[in-house]
Amino acid sequence: MESATTCWEADEGWELHNDDGFVYKRKKSRGDPLAAEQPATSTDPQAEERNRKERKRRTLLKLKARYQREIDQWELLSNSLRATEEKAGHSQRIQKQQTERDGLAQTAALGASSQYLPEFVDGLLVDELLLQVEAQEAIIGDISNLCDVAEAMCNAQEELLKQSLIDLPIWASPHELIASLCDD
């Protein structure tokens, strides 16, 4: 983006220069001030256009490569997430089928004694719920331990910050404070 520049002559060896509202003094340049501001370029407009197009092409290729790397990373993350979800769903289906087979096998073993069937089904349900509660308890215990560790780290950091503030010379006597300020 080109900026509009204007120059005013001020003193004998200096001139004021306005570069889009940024005004400053600089030494006068010999010859044409506008020619001195513009860099030396080739006089061939076709060569300039080719150079501009080449720079634009290289810039676009760099952007394309950067975006392609980013897209590849997102695809990798997406595929990893999909694979994890499929594994979790597959293991849940297997576990559910296993519990159904176990329940059917035990129900078939009871066979003719229909008077014990409701107690047996309730027992299986209670066992399954008990296992879920124990798993949830273990998860909660792990999270609680993580929270305790995080809290201990925060407390230690807070104590370090407090100690650094307490160790400041400002808390000493006024004479010691003045002496420490004078030493610096």
UniProtKB/TrEMBL annotation:
Gene source species: Carya illinoinensis (Pecan)
Region Disordered: start-end pairs: 19-55
Protein name: Uncharacterized protein
Classification of source organism: Eukaryota, Viridiplantae, Streptophyta, Embryophyta, Tracheophyta
